[in-house]
Amino acid sequence: KQEVTQIPAALSVPEGENLVLNCSFTDSAIYNLQWFRQDPGKGLTSLLLIQSSQREQTSGRLNASLDKSSGRSTLYIAASQPGDSATYLCAAKSAYSGAGSYQLTFGKGTKLSVIP
Amino acid sequence: GAVVSQHPSRVICKSGTSVKIECRSLDFQATTMFWYRQFPKKSLMLMATSNEGSKATYEQGVEKDKFLINHASLTLSTLTVTSAHPEDSSFYICSALPPAGLSYEQYFGPGTRLTVT
Q1: Is B22 exposed, middle or buried (0-12, 13-18, 19+ CB in 10 A)?
Q2: pLDDT in tens, B42-75
Q3: Mean pLDDT across chain A, nearest whole number?
């Protein structure tokens, strides 16, 4: 059974700092890994999706890396801004013998606060 | 990216009543839709997977008679919480998957906050 862990649970940084959020997964046989942003009381906004054959994806100030063999992914945020404050979730898509052919397993998230 | 909507965004109901939540894929046909539940400071937990025109498949521990799911069309799935109790209060999020080959990314709705009094 896939398990996804995110460390730290919360992070507070001053504006302008570069930061790294960590995500680890127990089953390396994943189809892809996705990073989401969730604002309080809101749904999920997809940030980056990395296919299993890829090593990284970039979008603006965000860069996500994937190391399947070690079961790790990182989300790098450059030059953080107060508007980046949110909870960041990672989710691994892996084979699943239950309801469907695969399952998306979420971590509990890292709550980021960027202090002006 | 593709858009998934949910209605209502917030609902308050009395204990014992039923509540229906709608999930729509606005610009693509979703052969598969998923319903998740999110508890405070917890991960999203998959409740059930539904394929258009067939019965939903529920995860272990989810009561199918309490959480009724209907996926009657390729753009609409509904979740009905029957005989709601305060412990059903939660944030419910749906997700839709386009037909295979177009994308392997699931698209998520904005969520519905259910409060049962």
Answers
A1: middle
A2: 889 999 998 888 889 998 899 999 999 998 888 9
A3: 92
Contact yes or no for A110/A9 (Cβ under 8 A):
yes
Q: Per residue in A83-110, pLDDT tens?
A: 999 999 999 988 765 555 678 899 999 9
Q: Does A106 touch chain B (CB under 8 A)?
A: yes
Size of interface A-B (CB pairs under 8 A): 56
Euclidean distance between CA atoms A17 and A15, whole angstroms: 6
Per CB-CB distance under 8 Å, the chain B contacts of A98 are: 57, 59-60
Residue A109 CA to residue B22 CA, distance in Å, equals: 26
B42 touches chain A (CB under 8 A): yes
Three-state secondary-structure class, residue A84: helix
Residue A29: phi, psi to the nearest 5?
Answer: -85, 70
Alpha helices in A3-102 (DSSP H): none
Beta strand residue intervals within chain A, DSSP E = 4-7, 10-14, 19-25, 30-38, 44-51, 56-59, 62-67, 72-77, 86-95, 102-106, 110-115
CA distances (Å), origin A57, targets A38, B105, B107: 19, 14, 18
